[in-house]
Amino acid sequence: MNAARRRRVLARVVVIAALVAVAPAAAAEEPTTPTPIVPVSVRPLTAIESGRNDANPVWARSGKLIAFERSRGDRKEIVVARADGTIVYTIYYQASQAGKEPKFFFPGLAEDVSYNAGIAWSPAGDRLAFTSNGGTGNYDVYVHELGGNKTTRLTDHKEKDGQADWSPVTDQLVFVSGRTGKGDLYLVDVASRALTRLTWGTNPFLYPQWSPDGTKVTVLHGSNDNHDVYVIGDVRRPAETLRALTTWTHDDLRPVWSPDGKKIAFYSNYNTAGDPKTWAILVIAADGSDPTDGPGLAAKVVATGVVPDVERGPAWLPDSAGIVYVKDDRAEYNPLYLADLVRGTNVVIKTDTKMNHDVTCSVDGVIAFRAQVDQWDQVFVARLKE
Asked: Which of 75, 70, 118, 89 is closest to 379 using CA atoms?
């Protein structure tokens, strides 16, 4: 064998040896199941008690107070507690014009069930807005001053008003009213009670939410089976700046702004199997730069097989990099999951609670949620990290 041929043979041997050497390393890089998240702490917000149901927790913007709905039989009330679970106030009665004190009843899936309290905090955390029929059968928006024991009725109409959200920068509420016969958005000034109509729709507008900078509003709009996500780009020019962010045939529900105001998360019954009862979470750009339908919008799915929390919407982490949600897994009692938007993973959160629902997250990253204990709903809080 001449020298040139010997060099060619040796070169092939070296290449084959190198491929054999790297094969085990390549196999070791196969994807692995993400490690479950074990919270630093998980506890009931208040003492566990049978005979009552707690639901729909809502953090004040400071993260120091939390309000939720509590039901005992026909008694319906809003409870305000500190983050450590200490109850500081309970809203139960509202004086009527006749001087009586009827009970508060909140609208929800049925007229006589306290399901959707519609709790909304003022920016300073010193007042609460909510919806009540005041014991008279007519649903309106009220504001309660914490510590002052004063409740102000902001709206007074024979048709229902509700689903209010408080601007993060002004003393205004955006809410849904049935006074137009369809369900339209209005602004109400808390001090003057002056109303400004924002929409003129042939179908209802539902669940409005202010952007973090207080200039825009995201809202649902559409029919019972096909809602789409819309944004009012400037509440001073609502008709001119109303824009659809989704336009497909799938039902989209409960859009929520990310804390940084750059994204909007929402539930959708889009899925490859075409099952209208199977839900996902999508995240899209708030500026409308993403596709509104088709494969481009479908590519924005960040979690599949979720239980939609329609009253609160997807629960963003304060850094806008993750969303906590409930997995539709009855065998595992509907556990909490984290959709990590940076890594593109979905990881179970080991809270050891059952039948979770109503997830929300504070500015400090503390998760509050509803879970069942002996068939009664209780509010729990979990801290993912120190």
From this structure: 70
